[in-house]
Amino acid sequence: MSTFIDLLRQHRHELEQDYGHHFNSDIKRAISAMFRVASSTLKDFAHRQTRGELGFTIVLHTHSRKRELHPHLHVIVAGGQYDAKRHQWFKGKKNYLFNEFALAKVWRARMLESINQTIPVILPRDVPSKWVVDCRCVGYVLPALQYLSRYLYRGVLPDKDIKSVTENEVTFEYVDGKTKQRRSRTLPITQFLWLILQHVLPKGLQRVRDYGFLRGNAHQLCLQIQLLFLSASELYRPVSRTAQQRVVRS
After folding, report:
1. Is residue 25 located within the same domain as residue 36?
2. Distance between CA 240 and CA 42 in Å, rounded?
3. How far apart, in Å, are the Cα atoms of 218 and each of 118, 136, 210, 211, 214?
4. CA-angle at 34, arms to 75 and 11, nearest 5°
5. What pLDDT is stored for residue 13 in this prediction?
6. Does residue 173 share a domain with residue 61?
7. Residues 91 and 187 in one domain
8. 107-135 pLDDT, tens per residue?
C-alpha cells in the first residue's frame, strides 16, 4: 500500500508576523482548530472521491528552523479508502491522493473561518491568498513514520546544536532553509527561554492524533480491512503447477 504525506501550514510570514501573539495567548484553541480543519478537509475530499473512509495520522510541529513559533501539520495518509457498508477497498492511484492546490484553497478558507469563529482576533486585510499544502507519495509508511518521529522525540533544540552558554546569552545553530548552510543565532537568556517554552503545549493538547480507520476505537474496522486483504491474497495466490502440468504439449 502506498503512503502519502501532506504538509499543511499557514503562510509563514503571516503566522510569525501577524498571528504569532494570538497563537501564544490562545494556542490551545488555535492548534485544536488546525487539527479539526485539516481532518475535516481530508475526510470531505475522500468522501467526494469514493465515499470511502480514509485512515491518517496528523503530527503537529510547532517550530521553524530558527525555533520561532510556527505551528504546522504533517499528515500521513494511507493510499486507499475503505467503504464499510460495501466491505470494499478502494486502492486509489499510485502516486496521486488529492489535488494539492484545491486542498490549499479549502484549507485556507476553512482555517480563516475557524479563526474568526473561535479566536478573538481581527484578521489583517493583507492575508496572503496562497497557503501551503505539499502532498507527495512517500512509498511505504515506515520511513515516513521514522522521519516524523525524529522531530517528536529529539525536542525543539537538541543539545548538540547549543554552541555556547554565558551568564547573559545563549548561542545555537540551525540549518538555513534556503541556503542549507548552518547558521548561528545568539539570544539573551530570557529571550532564549521564551523561545523554547512557547513550544510547550498546554494541558490537553496532543502532538499526534489518529483519524478514520486508524483511530483508537476502530479495532473492528481495522480487522475487517485486514481480513479483506487476506482473502484477496488467497484468492489471487499463484498456483504452483505439477511436473506433469508443465509438460509442453506436442
Report:
1. yes
2. 43
3. 29, 26, 10, 9, 7
4. 90
5. 42
6. no
7. no
8. 999 998 988 888 777 777 777 788 878 88
Domain assignment present for 250: no
Q: What is the 3-state secondary structure (H, E, C) of the chain?
A: CCEEEEEEECCHHHHHHHHHHHHHHCHHHHHHHHHHHHHHHHHHHHHHHCCCECEEEEEEEEECCCCCEEEEEEEEEECCEEECCCCEEECCCCCCCCCHHHHHHHHHHHHHHHHHHHCCCCCCCCCCCCCEEEEEEEECHHHHHHHHHHHHHCCCCCHHHEEEECCCEEEEEEECCCCCCEEEEEEEHHHHHHHHHCCCCCCCCCCEEEEECCCCCCHHHHHHHHHHHHHHHHHCCCCCCCCCCCCCCC
Q: Is 57 part of a structural domain of the chain?
A: yes
Q: Quick one: 64 and 135 in the same domain?
A: yes
Quick check: is 240 in a domain? Answer: no
Work out the pLDDT band at 14, boundaries 50, 70, 90.
Answer: very low
Q: What backbone phi and psi angles, to 5 degrees, belong to 172?
A: -135, 165
**Where in the sequence is the domain holding 168, given as residue range(s)?**
157-198
